[in-house]
Design a protein that fits this description.
By secondary structure, the protein is of the alpha/beta class. It is built from 9 helices and 7 strands; from the N terminus they run βαβαβαβαβαβαααβα. Bound molecules: nicotinamide-adenine-dinucleotide. Keywords: Oxidoreductase.
């Protein structure tokens, strides 16, 4: 079960956190993984790790906000079975503390970046007779979180794009789902704690851990396991769905 032998996968944001765990796991299951990241060192390091473990990987240093670069790179890959859209950035702020520049930056990476990869991948999947797409949403798309105005906006858009793509390409044998994690302990979380709560990182880490009823943050590998399932042939009846993976955050926080 869950074999990805002879499959080709693109993982964006593959250099760190969840994307890295996904790239490593898909390669371990036999896929050739094309690891996209704007961070050169990180993209190459994950491919080195894949290769060292006996897998097959190719690094692509790309910014998902640049449509032509993304399309050109996807076209060099040619045939594509799996797309995991993981690249994303965060912002802390309410509407009054979100500048136009913050809003545009979040939109560019989390929404337009995802659209660019969908735009590049769908024609390749159609040519290939089908494929599977997994988009990273968040619990921020499902419930009102404090101080996550722009971020929540982008993750709501991810959920809506997922449904739209799932509907439009169902007859082309393309499945499209998203997942909505609560907090996952990655450099993304460490980065925003350092930036937004300097000197109080440990205290805030504890506080954020406790917001999951299960009492901790997820590990990237736990998220990667669900993504592997959804991208495998074992999930062939699943499309147009969002899966919370949240330690009880959405349904047990009362
Ligand atoms: N960590 C969490 O708690 C959490 C929870 C829910 C959803 N998510 C989502 O999961 C995804 C991954 O989060 P993470 O915690 O692993 O983050 P991370 O910061 O550890 O990794 C994100 C990666 O994306 C890359 N990236 C950023 N902008 C890019 C761009 N323009 N083009 C290409 N690559 C770019 C970064 O270089 C980095 O390697 C994001 O979409 C995030 O919104 C994270």
């Amino acid at each position: 079960m869950f074999s990805l032998k002879n499959k080709t996968a693109v993982v964006t944001g593959a250099g760190s956190g969840i994307g890295k765990a996904v790239a490593l796991l898909l390669a371990q299951q036999g896929a050739t993984v094309h690891a996209f990241d704007v961070n050169d060192t990180a993209a190459n390091a994950v491919v080195q790790e894949i290769t060292a473990a006996g897998g097959s990987g190719v690094a692509h240093v790309n910014d998902v906000t640049k449509q032509q670069d993304i399309v050109d790179t996807f076209n060099t890959i040619g045939s594509l079975d799996i797309l995991v859209n993981c690249a994303g950035i965060s912002h802390i702020g309410k509407v009054e503390t979100t500048t136009e520049a913050d809003f545009d930056r979040l939109f560019q990476v989390n929404v337009k970046g995802m659209y660019n990869c969908l735009f590049a991948a769908v024609p390749l999947m159609k040519q290939n007779g089908g494929g599977v797409i997994l988009n990273m949403s968040s619990i921020a798309a499902l419930v009102g979180l404090p101080d996550r105005f722009a971020y929540s906006m982008t993750k709501g858009a991810v959920l809506a794009m997922t449904l739209s793509v799932a509907k439009d390409y169902i007859a082309d044998n393309i499945r499209c789902n998203c997942i909505s994690p609560a907090r996952v302990h990655t450099p993304f979380v460490d980065g925003f704690l350092a930036k937004n709560y300097p000197g109080k990182e440990a205290e805030m880490f504890e506080k954020l851990s406790k917001t999951q009823p299960i009492g901790r943050m997820a590990k990237p590998e736990e998220i990667a396991g669900l993504i592997l399932y959804l991208c495998s042939d074992e999930a062939s009846f699943i499309t147009g769905c969002d899966y919370p993976i949240d330690g009880g955050f959405v349904k047990l926080n009362n």
